[in-house]
Amino acid sequence: MPRLVRTPETQHRIHFQDCDMLGHLNNARYLDYFLNAREDHTTAHYALNLGELARAQRAAWVITKHHLSYLRPARHGALVLIRTQLIHFDNQNLVVEMQMRSEDGGRLLALLWSEMAFVQLPAGTRLDHDDALMEMLEELDVPGIDYDPDGFDERVKAVRQELKKLRRE
């Protein structure tokens, strides 16, 4: 069986209706772009339809917290690269990191951590991931990223430094 793509990426165009008066992507719309990209990634790369999962298992991941850093404007008409990856999970929770980069991938425009809890529907009570989900999460967890719930700013700095180093090379 082929390995799952740990860090899928797709390009997205910044649309006029999503921008502010300065032609920059509106701050609130970043979440839409990130979450839509992640949904596309889970469907295309993991054959995981989140709506079907919710219906079949009567369970779903719900977002409990976002950490979002806006670093450079995403401008109207620009193509951006959105990368998503699982950086932490346990029996009931996971953290997905999402990066919006310039079209060539060389500059970080924004970085998001979405913390999620797996809950039973419709009650909303926390639920353990079943064995099959745990196996998939284990395979998707990106090695080398030491998740610290209080380390968001340090992670943003590390990604920026890594990209700066790559540009110099």
- Poorly predicted tracts of residues: none
- Spatial strand arrangement across the major sheet: 1-3-4-5-2
Largest sheet: 5 strands, antiparallel
In CATH terms, what is the architecture? Roll
The string of secondary-structure elements, in order, is EHHEEEEHH
Strand residue percentage = 25-35%
Report Rg.
17 Å
CATH topology: Thiol Ester Dehydrase, Chain A
Q: Kindly report how far apart the N and C termini lie.
A: 35 Å
Coarse structural class: alpha+beta
Instruction: Give me the number of helical elements.
Output: 4
Number of domains: 1
Structure description:
The chain is α+β, with helices and mostly antiparallel strands. It has a single domain, classed as Hotdog Thioesterase (Thiol Ester Dehydrase, Chain A), CATH 3.10.129.10. The protein is 33% helix and 30% strand. The protein contains four helices and five strands, in the order E-H-H-E-E-E-E-H-H. It has a five-stranded antiparallel sheet, sandwiched between helices. Strand 3 and strand 4 form a beta hairpin. The chain is globular, with a radius of gyration of 17 Å. The model has no long low-confidence stretch (mean pLDDT 95).
